[in-house]
Structures are given as C-alpha cells and as structure tokens.
Amino acid sequence: MSMNSKRSQNYQALLLVGALIMPCSASADKAKAAEYYESAAALVSQGKPASAIIELKNALQQNADLLPAHVLLGKVYLSEGSAAQAEEAFLKAKLLGADKTLVYSLLAQSYLLQSKFQTLVGTLDHKGLPRKDKAELFVHRGHAYLQLRDFEKSNDAFLQAANLSPQAADPIAGRALLLMHQGQTNDAKKLADQALLLEPENAEGWNVQASLAHRAGNLVAAQNAYGKVLGFDPKHLAARLARVGIYLDLQKIKLAEKDLAFLRTSFPYEPRSLYLQSVLFNQQGKQSDALKNIQTAADVLDELNPKVVSSNQTLMMLASLVYFDLNRLEKAEEYLKIYIARFPSELGARKLLANILLKSGRYQDCIKILSPVVKQDQNSPDILSLLGRAYIGLGQHDQALSMLTKAVELDGNVGNKTELALSQIGVGNKGLAIELL
After folding, report:
1. Whole-model pTM?
2. With contact defined as beta carbons under 8 Å apart, do 375 and 344 qualify?
3. What is the pLDDT of residues 1-27, one digit of tens each?
4. Residue 68 in contact with residue 36, Cβ under 8 Å?
5. At what angle do helices 271-283 and 313-325 cross, to 10 degrees?
6. Which of 343, 378, 400 delimits the end of a domain?
7. What does the CA dihedral 162, 166, 170, 175 come to, rounded to 10 degrees?
C-alpha cells in the first residue's frame, strides 16, 4: 500500500472519529450550559446579580444559542440599570426566535432608559400580542411619545392601553403625567388619585403626586411622595433623581449622599446622577471632585446620539448645564436654542443662554432673549441684572441704570452693586458710583 493511500485512510479514519465525538461534545456543552443557566437563576433569586451575570456568560460560552440565558441576562442587566447591555441581550433573544411576549415589554423598558424613544415607537409592533402584553406596550409607547412631545399620540397610546386593560392603574397614571406636562394640574391630580384608588401601591401614580407637589414648591410633601414611589419601586430613576434635588435644596446632605450612593451603584453611567453629585461636591467645597464628575457626565453625553439628547427635555437641559460648566459654550448654546424653541416659557434656559451671549459680547442677542420674559417676571433680579449688563455692553447706560437699580433693590447683590456703580459712572454720577463701591 502506498504512503499516499495510507495517509488517505488515516485522514478518513480521523474524520470518522471526529464525526463520532462531536455530537457527544456538543451535547456535553449544552448540558454544561444548562447547569450554568440553572446556577444563574438560583443566584438571581438569592439577590446576587453580578454572580448571575458571570454564570450566564459562562452558559452562553458553552451554547451561544441558549435563548433563556439571553432573556435572563437581559432581565438582570435591566434590573441593574445597564440598559444598553439589556437591549443587546433581548435583541439576540429576538433574533433566536423568542416569543414577543418574552421580550417586547422588556425591550421597551430598555429603550426608555436609554431615551431611545423613536426606536421604541418605530420598531416594536403590538400586532399578535395577547391583550395584557399589548396594553403594557401601549403604556411604554405613551411614555415614549410624551418624551417626544407628541402629546396627541401619547394620549392615544394611553387610552388604547386603558381600553385593553380597564382595571390597570398604569395607563391612567400615564395620562395623569401627560396632563401634568400640558399644565393641566387639576385634571392630572384627579387621574393620579384614580390610579391610586385602583392600585394604592402604583409607583407611577405616586410619582405624579410627588411631581405635582414639587412643581407647586411644596418640597416636604414632594419628598414624602417620592419616598412612597421608591418604597414600591426602589429603582424608579426619575423619583430618585428628583428626591436628590430636593435634599440638596433643603440642605439634607446626608440623605442626598445616601441616594447618590444608590444611584452610583444602580445607574453608574447616568449623567443626571453624575451632575447632581457634582452639585453636592461644590456645596461641600470639593471643587476638584465636582469637576471630575462634570467631565464624566460630559463624556457620557458625548457618547449619546445628539438626536437622543435633543428629544429629551431633561437631557437637553442637563447637557446645556454640563457644557456650560466646562466652558464648552458653543455646545451648550446649541442645545439651549433647541430647548428654548420648544419650551419658550422656561426662564432658567433663557438665563443660561443670556450668560453665554454676554460672555461672547453679543449684547443685542442677549436683550432679545430676555426681553420677552422680563415682562413675564419683572421681579427677577437675575434677569434684570443680565439685561443691565447687556445694556452696559452696548453703552446704553440709562437703560442699564433702570434695570440694575431695581435688581439691587430686590436682592442687594454685591455684583449687581458693582455693575450699578459702572452704569452710574456711564451717566456721569461719579459720586453715587463711589458710594456704591
């Protein structure tokens, strides 16, 4: 027998052995994957998400197509606030043929956490879903449309959810939130009350109650209501962030620190949490730590699609503040202009943009931004001061004098007194200027 023929026989034998061994090996891999999955499920029930994630990754190394492992991995990631990783896991499960009922509502939640509102309403179809799951998806769509400022479609989605599930509290609470955003606070309160009658432990209903109290300036009532929300849903991000803001306003530093520590653990890359932490550091005189947090928040925002940021009122304002603090004024101005076009009555955004315009010497533009609102609030020393400084920049000292005199009367700020002194010099009143200085 020739050498070539022996080699050929040996090779064929090797292939035969391989063919016999591989099914056993694949079977062993699947069995091992199942073991890892069962271990992960046990760890989840024991409240050990980090260990569960490791076991699920081990399972998927053994069997990349193990559908339940992808679904459970997505659920764990979602519970830990890692929405992007959750989305990836759910999409893989969907690709592997997961039933819509397993992943659509969870995918919607991951999109909401990432502010991917257009993706949610554009890719998740309710057709073929059972009644209960369809209602849940319509609630998520209602919240997405609300963030996109499409109030009509938001209302339609919540109403469809309510029709599908008349005894459910979430569609009613969603409509309450919508009405609150439209400024219909009395009707919003009635619907929130109705939602809580149906389900006294409904987190969204309590969140509307808390937000209404917050907007009315009743911080103690708002704090208590946010506490209710977090008692029922500890990872309710909006409520946790809002409560931190209240704690900072009320100088309840220890409580703010506790909530911020929770946010760091549960939502480590949440830019609003990072910004609030920087506010706390500034209050504590830790300017270096504050700057680090602001920079980290900017890094997170830089990674987001600008369209995603622009579609979310809170993220837009946050981006404006973060970029302003880092002196990235062009970027801050870009978002502020979009913000003011959508929310013209928001004074905070106008004041921030006015500061940027002053810094860059665009005094006429500054006056143009503030003039419509000075009629709306003639007793705001901040607005009067900004207008006064703009008029000084244009050399119009009579107008500056009028604005700054009233600003000083309202709050006696040293900076305003200095600007007033300069305007007094501008109109020739040097004696008054020296007295002010």
Report:
1. 0.77
2. no
3. 444 444 444 444 434 444 444 444 445
4. no
5. 40
6. 343
7. 40
